[in-house]
């Protein structure tokens, strides 16, 4: 039994006449009569009564037609669903990310992706970089956004591209003496109570600060420890001290704070987007397309990285 047999039976029931049903189907009447007869033999019972007044479904035929109609509807839906899944319009995307990525660029990327792919189920997990890299290698995530490139066993098989460059900046209360300054120097920072993040992603930042301020920097040793950049901003607004964090904080202005550049300019670890090139779903491809549209320079670097997925360097620099 094939789908066409179901369509033939439904057409015959609708038109009640072999000739009219055949014309509606675009076939000759004899082949239709033969296909219906073959169907009845396969099922083992008559589906239609042939009378002078027309052709009418038997009780068995009515039961068969009800199921046939639902079966064809399901087949049509299956075809539509398969096409949507292949285009990345449905499915699931599991994303691990560091909290600071919610300042930039994730809000724009996730907003655009959600509007364009509302039926893709997003599973979002705030995770430290090391844990998200491990989960990505293990197949527990589809994509990860980390501080610095993923490291550890299996990381060499990931495709990674920078999606954000950061430098160290300071944030202070609007009533702080530094609030009117465009920049602050290291000597000025040494004389102030500091606010720094100390999560699992921060050792490299902390080490860089200690190098900048000096091993004996009392300000760093007595610094207030914040969970993430959002807390740094909040504590700075309260006048607790000078907050130090990534330049992505500039995308989160709020009343009562001022940002200052730090002199000399100090680079921080890049924000890196990574995925497994050998385990890419249509939903992930759609997400990467959103990244390309939202971040053109990143998209160019991503395309170059995909063209050399097994190159010696797992991370390409973003276009200037």
From TrEMBL:
Protein name listed in UniProt: LysR family transcriptional regulator
Cleaved signal peptide residues: none
Alphabetized UniProt keyword annotations: DNA-binding, Transcription, Transcription regulation
Annotated SUPFAM superfamilies: Periplasmic binding protein-like II, Winged helix' DNA-binding domain
Residue stretches making up the HTH lysR-type domain: 1-58
Organism per entry: Streptomyces griseicoloratus
Family: Belongs to the LysR transcriptional regulatory family.
A GO term for molecular function: DNA binding
Lyase is among the record's keywords: no
CDD domains (UniProt xref): PBP2_LTTR_aromatics_like (cd08414)
Lineage: Bacteria, Bacillati, Actinomycetota, Actinomycetes, Kitasatosporales
Key word DNA-binding present: yes
Listed GO CC annotations: protein-DNA complex
InterPro entries xref list: LysR_HTH_N, LysR_subst-bd, WH-like_DNA-bd_sf, WH_DNA-bd_sf
Coiled coil: none
């Amino acid at each position: 039994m094939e789908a066409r047999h179901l369509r033939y039976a439904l057409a015959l029931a609708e038109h009640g006449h072999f000739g009219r049903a055949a014309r509606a189907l675009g076939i000759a009447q004899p082949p239709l009569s033969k296909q219906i007869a073959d169907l009845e033999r396969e099922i083992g019972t008559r589906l239609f009564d042939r009378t002078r007044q027309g052709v009418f479904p038997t009780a068995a035929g009515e039961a068969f037609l009800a199921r046939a109609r639902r079966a064809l509807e399901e087949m049509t839906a299956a075809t539509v669903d398969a096409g949507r899944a292949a285009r990345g319009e449905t499915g699931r995307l599991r994303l691990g990310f560091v909290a600071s990525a919610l300042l930039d660029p994730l809000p724009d990327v996730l907003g655009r992706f959600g509007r364009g792919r509302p039926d893709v189920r997003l599973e979002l997990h705030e995770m430290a970089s090391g844990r998200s890299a491990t989960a990505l290698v293990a197949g527990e995530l589809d994509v990860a956004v980390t501080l610095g490139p993923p490291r550890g066993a299996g990381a060499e098989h990931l495709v990674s591209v920078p999606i954000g460059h950061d430098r160290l900046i300071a944030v202070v209360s609007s009533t702080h003496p530094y609030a009117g300054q465009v920049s602050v120097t290291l000597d000025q920072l040494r004389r102030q109570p500091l606010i720094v993040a100390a999560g699992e992603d921060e050792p490299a930042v902390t080490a860089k600060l200690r190098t900048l301020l000096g091993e004996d920097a009392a300000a760093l040793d007595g610094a207030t420890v914040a969970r993430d950049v959002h807390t740094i901003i909040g504590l700075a607004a309260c006048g607790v001290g000078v907050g130090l964090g990534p330049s992505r904080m500039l995308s989160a202005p709020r009343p009562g704070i001022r940002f200052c550049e730090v002199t000399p300019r100090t680079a921080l670890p890049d924000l890196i987007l990574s995925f497994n090139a050998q385990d890419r779903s249509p939903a992930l491809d759609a997400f990467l397309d959103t990244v390309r549209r939202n971040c053109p320079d990143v998209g160019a670097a991503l395309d170059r990285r995909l063209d050399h997925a097994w190159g010696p360097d797992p991370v390409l620099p973003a276009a200037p």
